[in-house]
Amino acid sequence: xxxxxxxxxxxxxxxxxxxxxxxxxxxxxxxxxxxxxxxxxxxxxxxxxxxxxxxxxxxxxxxxxxxxxxxxxxxxxxxxxxxxxxxxxxxxxxxxxxxxxxxxxxxxxxxxxxxxxxxxxxxxxxxxxxxxxxxxxxxxxxxxxxxxxxxxxxxxxxxxxxxxxxxxxxxxxxxxxxxxxxxxxxxxxxxxxxxxxxxxxxxxxxxxxxxxxxxxxxxxxxxxxx
Length: 226
Prior knowledge:
With 226 residues, the protein is of the alpha/beta class. Helix content is 41%, strand content 19%. The chain has helices at 3-16, 62-70, 126-134, 144-167, 174-183, 199-225; strands spanning 20-22, 25-27, 30-32, 34-40, 43-53, 75-80, 94-98, 105-109. β5, α2 and β6 (75-80) form a beta-alpha-beta unit.
């Protein structure tokens, strides 16, 4: 099979499971064959990726490709046709198989969560926050519960930024967008719509904006006094 045929099968597989899907996309200098997002109440809770290797492809770069996925995503799968999985495949990688004579994707091995990547939710606890505040001179906050909520939502927000950047690139020309639609004819219009912010994420951005404006005002005031 060609890669595009496998992408279509995977697309339908993950869509049926309720995921948002995009493919193929690049985050310079890396290219991802397929990325899926688990969205719950507007939050991107998990990002996963699938590296596709057809029977024609080489396994030469598989290790570096997998670790490029692991830098950004929560879990990684390798999708094969009939070949045996490569011996140097990291154990955290799950395995899927696509068959030419079937629409089904065969689930062979579950991926293990990648807990050291940049976008994994931290699940910050109040105890950790208390210890950190005590260790920092002059650090005090009255609304501790809100701080924890904001901190945890920041992780979800980073996932959302990443996924949306792969769905839609504002710098793309009309020709590039047309070529993208031509390459992925099975995509529906809703698949091209970025995931919007939740109310809590909007509050977080407002908080950052206000702090930034306050910082600028203080700086200007200092300059005037000088």
